[in-house]
From TrEMBL:
Homoheptamer. Coiled coil: none annotated. It is a multi-pass membrane protein. Keywords: Cell inner membrane, Cell membrane, Ion channel, Ion transport, Membrane, Transmembrane, Transmembrane helix, Transport. It comes from Ottowia pentelensis. It is found in: Cell inner membrane; Membrane. It comes from the Bacteria. Mechanosensitive channel that participates in the regulation of osmotic pressure changes within the cell, opening in response to stretch forces in the membrane lipid bilayer, without the need for other proteins. Contributes to normal resistance to hypoosmotic shock. Forms an ion channel of 1.0 nanosiemens conductance with a slight preference for anions. This is Small-conductance mechanosensitive channel. SUPFAM superfamilies: Sm-like ribonucleoproteins. The keyword Nucleotide-binding does not apply. Belongs to the MscS (TC 1.A.23) family. The keyword Cell membrane applies.
Amino acid sequence: MGWLNPSSVVGAVVLGVLAFALSFIVALAIRRGTRRIRQHLTDVTALGFVSAFAQLLTYLFGFVLYAHLIPELRAFGTALLTGVSVISVVIGVAAQNTLGNLVAGFWLVLSGTIRVGDAIHLASSVGAFDATVRLISLGNTVLVDQQGHEVIMPNSVIMGSAITRIAPAQTRVDPHIRS
């Protein structure tokens, strides 16, 4: 089994392909499972976040597993980890707004403060207006105002605003449930 020897170039490439293929199959299963679950939920906003995050973790786990199997990458990984810790502090300081929007996006979804389809009155630092929530993503929220214009606001601004829910999102009716 020389072609699976992690010390050889061929073995490292084969193990890399296997790690990527395994990660791809697991991510594909997550996407398919998400589609099946989506049909039974009334609010799918959190499901999209969880699905994307689980897929990212799957590929990250595949890469870490691969790096752990290859002896040359193990030593390199230790040195890289030291450098990455310093770089992460620098990037964290430089990307404070972006990271704040990311955290605010997770909080918006997990807390259920607003949901896709909600009609809201938003009083923020940019003014007050009525709108309908079209999309909540990791970085920003897309609203549609009464004139039909899309208003794209950073999630940190949404979280720092006073929100009045005028009308909750319309719930989908499950065709399998009969009244």
